Structure formats: C-alpha cells, structure tokens
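seq as requested:
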Amino acid sequence: MTAFTVALVLVVAAAGLLRWRRPAWYWLAFGVTLAALRVLVRYRSVMDACGLTVPPARWRLALARATHRPVPEPRPPRIRRLRPTRTGLVLRLKLRPGQDVFDIAAASDRLRHSFSMFGVTSREVRSGVVEVRMTGYDVLKRVQMPAETETRAMRVPVALREDGSVHYRDYRAIPHALTLGATESGKSVYQRNLVAGLAPLDVALVGIDCKQGVELFPLARRFSALADSPDTAAELLDALVARMADVYRLIRTQQRITVDVPDAEIAADIWDLPDELRPTPVVVLVDEVAELALYASKEEERRRDRIITALVRLAQLGRAAGIYLEICGQRFGSELGKGITMLRAQLTGRTAHRLNDETSANMAFGDIAPDAVLAAIKIPAELRGLAIAGDASGGWHRIRAPHTSLRQAVNLCNRYADRTPDLPELAPFRSTTGTATELVPSAKASTATA
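struct tokens:
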C-alpha cells in the first residue's frame, strides 16, 4: 500500500469520524466545499427538474430561428451570491419575470433532496430577490450558539433556528410573549436562557413563580422583585400597574411637543426620553400562568380577577412604559376563565414546546399561523427543548435553546448581581432569603418598605 493510499484512507476515516461526532467541524472542513460544488454543478438541471425555470423570451426564439441557431434553453433564477456559513450555504437568487417567491418555497423539499442538504428554507429579501438558506447537518440535534451574536438593548439571543440562524428575543419589536410547554419539554431551559441573556443588560427582572419559587428563586440575586404565591403576585402586579402610571406621567411631562421640536423627537415612550431621565425597563416573567387563574372559593375568584385584570392592563399599555411580559405555562386555554383570550391577543410572540393536547397548540398559533399548529403537536418527546416560535406576522420557525443547567444560570445571575436595579415601588418584593448573601440589607429593606 502506497503512502498516498494510506493518507487517503486516513483522511476519509477522519472525515467519517468528524461527520459522526462533530458534524459542525466536518461541515467546515469538508462539507462546505463539496456542497458548494454540488450546488453549482447541478444548479441548472435541478431548477429545471423542480419547475423553477421560465421559457426563453420571444425575441430570443425569433432570433434563434432567423439565425438558424439552437433554441435557447429555459432560464433558471440567476445566482447573485453564494455564501458559505458555519451551518450551511446561503444562496441569493434573482427571480425571472413570471416567477414568485412561493414557487421557491413550494419546491424547498425537492431542492433539499436534489442538492443533498439537510434542510432548505427561503425568504423574500425584496421584490424579485429570494434568499435560500440550506443547512448541511441537523443543527438542532446538538445546539451550538455562534461565538458572536448581534446583541443590543432589549434584544438577546435565546435559541438556534433550524436554518442555522440565531433566534432573538427582541422586546422592542415584540414586547409581550407566550411560552407553552408540557412537563419535561424544555420550557424551563428556554426560560433560563432568556434570563441569562437579560442578566448583563440594564433591565429589571421581575419573577412570579407560584411553585413555591423553585424555578426562579435560585436566580434571586438578579431579580428586582419575586413573588411565590398568588396573593403576593396580586400585590406585585398592582405595584407594576402603579409604576406604569408613574412612567406615563413622566413621559407626559417630557413630551417636548413645542412647534420647534421635530416629529421624530417627540417622546411617546421611554426610548424617546433622554438617557438620564429614562426609567429602567422591566421584564416580568410568569412561570406558570394557570396557577394565577385557578380558584376554589369566592375570595380566590376575586383575587384571580384582580390578577388577570392587572396582566391585561400591563399587556395593553406596558410597552410604552418599558414593561414587558413573558407568560409561561403548561396549559393555556379559555377554560382558565374570562380575560384569558383577551390576554392572549396582546401576546404577540408565541413559542410552543411539546404539548399534551392540540387545544393548547391552537391557542398558541391558531389565530396567527394555523400551519404551525400541526408542527407543534408533532414535536417528539425525546427532543426536549425543540419548539415552534411564531409571531403575529404569520411566520414561524423550529428552534431549540442550548442546554443551560440551573447551576449555570445561578452562577451567571450571581456574576451580574451588581446590575440589579433598586426600584422603590418593588422594594417590598425584593427577595432577601434563599441565597448565600442577602440581596438587600435589612435596614435598607425596612426603609424602602416604610
């Protein structure tokens, strides 16, 4: 056996091992080059077989007949750019006259098979230009977030999409969201990633965890307020409604609506205020919304109505005041009582992990993306963390958050504990127990309460 043969065998064995154990490394080392060549070589024939070509123009046919030349072949969309990524290829196409972006979307499965890729998705960049994202391997099997992400104020990366792009939670674009998931579906891990992304930012975190605080209270050092029972949650939500009213009064006094102020500088929410006057934005995380809506007596029913009314008010009016809601639960349906569907209508962002019933999937996506309902109920039990994410625009994606243990989340919250803002109206709800170090000195807490 020659040295060249031995080297070739070693390279093939190394490639096979990488493809099995480290698909991302295999893709960057071997797969991206082979896939790019495969796409360029097969492009015209694949597009023709998938029905993504258009007949030549009539003047070309007339010219060919007049000059006795061969009849021109049908023309596929023109490749404007082929860009490799860490998970696949991005193909930007210029559509021919008569073609539509839905033609590319309808042929995505055929393109995936023809180009031997793991997945193919498409989106319209602008009129006549379509971006086709092809993944070379299952990026959701072992989630690895990129080292660099486009993090900015109130926008944090929380998961990876099936096309290899990063899924962000952008509170200024989608202020309120609903996250559903059965037990052991990965909902808690998604919530931890959300807290981990928000911890380094200048934002106040408020938690409502009626499971005696087992999910959120370990992260207490980064939370400005926490509630572990429906009674405390009702008082906390009332305090947030009062804060919202105070913020609106501040905005009103600082609107700058004189005639010499341009329209773009008139203050209508906290982000239009100067930095020195801008109140701290608040993200409210409700761990199990059903615990706030259930009741067994008239007194509990009055408390329940008080809680739901406060949540609806915050969902309707909280965006401009910088108050954002993250509502989580195993079940979300109309049987939770009046006000629930009104609350759902204000929750623009929707994320559904594996669910136990189709009704919850319909409550999540039935009014915005009906085709996402079927995708949500098909999530297998063994793929914990896999979820369907959608919004009011009707678009949806399969996503999966990287696994973050409770210990990792606790360490991160402890590291950024100094960034926890002290909000006077929330001081009575600041946790002072359950951590190694008290969050607020007793004297300071007594003064704030008084």
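Residues 70 and 231 are 82 Å apart (CA to CA).
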